[in-house]
Design goal:
Blueprint: H1 2-40, E1 45-54, E2 57-61, E3 66-71, E4 78-79, E5 84-88, H2 91-173, H3 178-199, H4 202-232, H5 244-262, E6 264-266, E7 271-274, E8 283-284, E9 289-294, E10 300-306, E11 318-323, E12 326-338, E13 364-371, H6 374-379, E14 385-391
Antiparallel strand pairs: 1-10, 1-14, 2-9, 3-5, 3-8, 4-7, 5-6, 7-9, 10-13, 11-12, 11-14, 12-13
Helix pairs in contact: 2-3, 2-4, 2-5
Amino acid sequence: MVEDSQGQVVDNNASKKIVRLIFLLIIPLVVIWLALSFYFSGGRFVSTQNAYVKVPIINIRAQIDGRISQTHVKDHVAVEKNQFLITQDSQLLEAQQRAKQAQLDKIRVNIRTQIAQLREAEVNILRAQEELKMARNILKGLGDEWQLKRDISANKVKQLEAEYNRLKQLVTKGAGAKSHLESVEFELKTARIEAQKTELRHDIDVMEHKVTLAQREIISREAQKATLEASLGGVRYETINQHPDIQKVFAEIDQLQQDITSSKIRAPDNGIVARMHLEPGEYLEQGDVVMAIVQTQDAWIEANLKETDLTQIRPGQPVEMIADTFPNQVFSGVVESISASTGSEFAVIPPQNASGNWVKVVQRLPVKISITDAKGKSLLRAGMSISVRIDTGKYRDAPSWISPFLLPKSIFG
């Protein structure tokens, strides 16, 4: 009985030592082994819940002042590109356009009248130039004729004076007939009277006056022509639309037409209407935001990752995403780009790390993730919270001497 008791005591002590060995050595080693295997099988996936759906949002603004005559869409309605959204009253613009068209027609009539006056002035200048040329030719002929008559009269007077003096000497000496002397004296007086008449230039003076009038007429017509040409700006019938006044009215009509077109506000692209709270009768001023178009088809995910998680992040890596709105659906995506700076760099008051006490804070950088899942593009909405899981395809590197003893990485997913 004593021996059995002693043997049982020995067995109990051995069992306790084995249990103690298991708890103090083997189990810690197994835990360490599992922990190391788990650690070195990690690092492949980077996850964060700091991610949100982003979409392009187009603010639709009124291009002109005017009252709303009709609204074609309501909030949260899907619209297509060029679909009518709002129509503003354009009656005043159309009336102004008609008035400008009437003004344009009036300007054209005035320009055509000026062109006709210009042509008439050009014809009158040519006619006056011909008349001047003719008057100058006549004046030259009259001058030549007058000079010839003057010379003839002077020569005749000179000859008669010589004959009279010769006969007078003969009569004084008693060698000539007195009657002949009287006859020559009469002819001399007559010749002198004719010579005096010849000195008169009545016809020449009249013609010189006509030449002066023709010259004045040309100067007047040329001044009128210059005024018309300056007013027309070189425009003729075939280029009447190039006149500055017409070009100005054309520009005003085009602007009015553009305003009329702008009074019908259209969707610039496909999307969903948001912030549409306008009703017919409300007045819009140019630049007022009337609504927004949310382009859900171009949605993406913006994940704000810690800088320490970006070591292995590269564009093109696959991403799994779960929206809080759809917790049972997994959407797929791909890393598109990594921001060039942290979010704090764009803060209203950027951090000043060079002054005061410094406390290190882990920074976050926005990572843009494209949604490749067609269903995700249709379901996700701007601002939704998303949980993302990026597959970097790379694990933590284990030392070569320990790698053979670790569990396969596939066991941990």
